[in-house]
Amino acid sequence: MAVAVRDLETGEAATVDGDRPFHAASTMKVAVLAALLAAVADERHHLDDRLHVRNRFRSAADGSPFRVAQDRDANAAVFAKRGRTMPLGTLAEHMIQTSSNLATNLLVDLLGVEAIREATARWGGAGVEVVRGVEDEAAYEAGIVNTATAYGLVGLFVGLEEGAGLPDEVRQFGLDVLFGQEFASGIPAGVPGEVREGSRFAHKTGSISTVQHDAGLVYLPDRRPYAVAILTEWEADATNGRRETVASLSRAVYDHVTHG
């Protein structure tokens, strides 16, 4: 388990094992979003540019072809567009809000791993290492794995909140995408209900068989946000209590931020 928090209201920061690397799972998609926003800011791409939707990718391990499994993807909408095109901004929404793996790999292929790494570093996300897309089983077997630290994820979200050198409209698009996150059982669930109703959460979850993560910005009423990352590791057969644990840790962070 690792937790990192930075309160932009007070400047206070705290971590527990904040530099410990975990399998990033879908939290790596925040780094992909960062690279897309940077490319839009630099006018290398535009959010309304259209990208051909296909389901064929090359492994980072050996170049062998692989596909994203439709029955493992959280979003059928992108699969429904195969053979047609979708705007980059729409793909970003699917990647973050419903964690579409197909949308993710399309954007990773377009942007390139090196551009993703550069944007991550520029935003202050040292500790978030993206080396490939998702569902690349050959790369996984070869030990080529995306990793993240709680400290690095907090850095990414702080970078976005503080501007990251982005035009206001591009930065706001990134925040709006994250505000639209559909999975709310982690960080948001840890904020008391009466407060949660007046709060906003720009965050990204991530889970595979052995990890359950959530990281983002928490905008409580009448104050600047705090950035928090909660990373947890589990035995593959330990399926109960994962989301509740993340929510409980989120509550502990909330209590610390609001009551000291």
From TrEMBL:
EC numbers, comma separated: 3.5.2.6
Domain Beta-lactamase class A catalytic positions: 3-232
InterPro entries recorded: Beta-lactam/transpept-like, Beta-lactam_cat, Beta-lactam_class-A
A GO biological process held by the record: response to antibiotic
GO molecular function terms attached to this record: beta-lactamase activity
Catalysed reactions, semicolon-separated: a beta-lactam + H2O = a substituted beta-amino acid
Family from the record: Belongs to the class-A beta-lactamase family.
This protein's name: beta-lactamase
Lineage, uppermost ranks: Bacteria, Pseudomonadati, Rhodothermota, Rhodothermia, Rhodothermales
